[in-house]
Design a protein that fits this description.
It is built from 13 helices and 7 strands. By secondary structure, it is an alpha/beta fold. It has 2 domains: 116 residues; 104 residues. The strands form 2 sheets. Strands 2-1-3-4 form a 4-stranded parallel β-sheet, sandwiched between helices. α5 packs across α8 and α7 crosses α9. The chain is globular and about 55 Å long. It starts with a strand and ends with a helix.
Length: 240
């Protein structure tokens, strides 16, 4: 079966190695992986900023590029949540587009949800030296129900998870929120970084690059040069 990989803007532009880890995992699970070369943004920044016209254009573009596949996999809870949960709002006044999206929506999965509940993947035990702590990204958790899936996969590869305090609390990124409300964002991520440090693991794993960049950036700016901040695909694929 063919999987269309929505690679996300941030991975494409800032951490493409994560995308290659995702492809490795999906191919290991037995799927043919296609990365549509013309894909761009899911439209979330525009949507969250009230730019519905731009968001709608991007949603239509995404739909055209991905509706041909058996599944669409997104290694990001925020982009996955935008596509699955908010495109319906953008297409609500267009029955034809709403119908096309209705056929696409059940095929869209966040990466770990897909690996556990669709692919039912069995991963080999890896060489990563744990333990780690895990940050539950807001959109993946609250919009897509991603909670136990990444933990189950980490257990498969032999990486123990030490839960930090308030692991479900926001990291402070929130896309344009971090730009508009920098002081509040900083206070939130400082609390997250303190909880990561208190876990005593030396590494935090998560499933959304926006959160990764926000947490890692704050750790480095405050003098922490050793705590590792890793996308779960990197750990599961043996690339961390």
């Amino acid at each position: 079966m063919r999987v269309g990989l929505f690679v996300t803007c941030l991975i494409d532009l800032m951490r493409p190695e994560i995308g290659f880890s995702v492809i490795k995992l999906l191919e290991h699970a037995g799927f043919e992986v296609i990365v549509p070369p013309a894909q761009t943004c899911c439209g979330q920044p525009a949507y969250n900023s009230g730019e519905r016209g731009i968001a709608r254009d991007l949603a239509e573009k995404t739909l055209r590029e991905f509706e041909q596949f058996d599944y669409v996999v997104v290694p990001s809870g925020s982009c996955g949540g935008m596509i699955r949960e908010h495109y319906a709002d953008l297409f609500r006044d267009d029955p034809q587009m709403a119908g096309r999206f209705g056929r696409l929506r059940p095929k869209v999965y966040e990466l770990t949800d897909f690996l556990v509940n669709v692919a039912k993947v069995e991963l080999p035990r890896g060489e990563f030296q744990g333990p780690v702590t895990y940050h539950d990204s807001c959109s993946g958790l609250r919009e897509l129900g991603v909670k136990q899936q990444p933990r189950a996969l980490l257990a498969q590869v032999g990486v123990p998870v030490t839960e930090m305090k308030d692991c479900e609390h926001c990291c402070g990124f929130g896309g344009t929120f971090a730009i508009k409300y920098g002081d509040i964002s900083t206070a939130i991520v400082d609390e997250k970084c303190a909880n990561i440090a208190a876990s005593g693991t030396g590494a935090v794993v998560l499933g959304d690059l926006g959160c990764m960049l926000n947490i890692e950036g704050r750790l480095r700016r405050t003098g922490d040069a050793t705590t590792r901040v890793l996308h779960i695909a990197q750990v599961l694929a043996g690339d961390a």
